[in-house]
Amino acid sequence: MSDIVITHARRTPIGKYSGALAPLNAVQLGTHAVSAVLRQSAIDPGLVGQVIMGHGRQAGNGPNTARQVAIRAGLPETCIAYTINMACASGLKAIVNAALAITSGECEAAIAGGMESMTNVPFMLTSDARNGWRMGHHEVTDLMYRDGFLCPLADQLMGRTAETLRIQYNISRAEQDEFAAASHNKAEAALKAGRFKDEIAPVTLRDKKGETLLDRDEGVREGCTPDQMAKLKPVFMDDGTVHPGNASGITDGGSALLLMSAEKASKLGFKPLARLEGYAFAGVDPKVMGLGPVPATADINRKLGLSIDQYDLVELNEAFAAQVLACDREMKIPRDRLNVNGGAIALGHPIGNTGARIVTTLAHELRRRGGRRGLATLCVSGGLGASLAIAAV
Q1: How many distinct structural domains can be found in the chain?
Q2: Terminal CA-to-CA distance of the chain, rounded, Å?
Q3: Which residue numbers are catalytic?
Q4: Residues 116-136: pLDDT tens digits?
Q5: pLDDT at 255 over 90
Q6: Does 77 fall in a domain?
Q7: Residue 354 CA to chain centroid, in angstroms?
Q8: Would you say residue 363 lies in a domain?
Q9: Which of 47, 107, 312, 349 has the highest CB neighbour count under 10 A?
Q10: Which residues contact 82 (CB under 8 A, 6 or more apart)?
């Protein structure tokens, strides 16, 4: 895998729930990201043999959303495309599969990414509606809840698993709120300094009033403080500590990365953003799904002969502050290298997009800082962890 490089990586701004990107569905968000990569690279579309997109909440978007993205982005009908649902790891798994496809000779170049419009996840009539309702009241099911917030294996809401980790690792609410506020502070600083400029492909939105350009992530709170967080009520336990402020946002977005061999990149005259070093996936108890990054990262470090302090930057997805802090208790990540431009608490966590988004952000920031190596890792609902190591070229 060390021969596979990322030459280009772009993403949409991340839109807040029912925010600016609400008029766009997941396919449109994914298409925007893929189109941005194609425009920036100016690669011959015929060279892109596969498009692999993560998409976690697929209901109502039509079959094989990755194929829809590929065609709508202008790739030829001969381009193979398929969609991955590995929940939070969908976008990262898409990158791994693209690398494996190139390594195995299935294609010379591939686009991998992820997409999600959590705003547009539909509601569903209960299954007995298929056979007809004679009379009486019947339920409508929220698929955001049914297919996302609730883990059927743990029989718990995702936030309750974060509370479990908070108790297990004795993580105070103050520590969580400080971490969450810092995520917003770092993201605010990154936006003001233009550090996301190279990765964000602005979205033009049109309505009756005219055109609006969205070129920054919507969820970042300016001047956020722990005191503001302290006013929010816990959601998952009466005496709990996890609340909307120290959890990731419900958001919309898409990302895309162009991958190929280093040799192919050289022939095409591309200067790669990064090369892939290795990957690992791991399983844990679904009730402590937030610990998934711990064994996944331990496995990748074992394979590569690395330790956590050998990564110049670490992007650990912030599903919940308690979850990141629990992982850090085990992994001992240098804080000045962790989510340096903020994480999902500030930016948001569009499920199928996030794995690709954190790799996109990591690759650009690694280049900007002149770093040598970076780690992208995240927990996954159902009790999984995923990690991907990249290196500067």
Answers
A1: 1
A2: 14
A3: 88, 349, 379
A4: 999 999 999 977 788 888 888
A5: yes
A6: yes
A7: 0
A8: yes
A9: 349
A10: 50, 52, 64, 66, 67
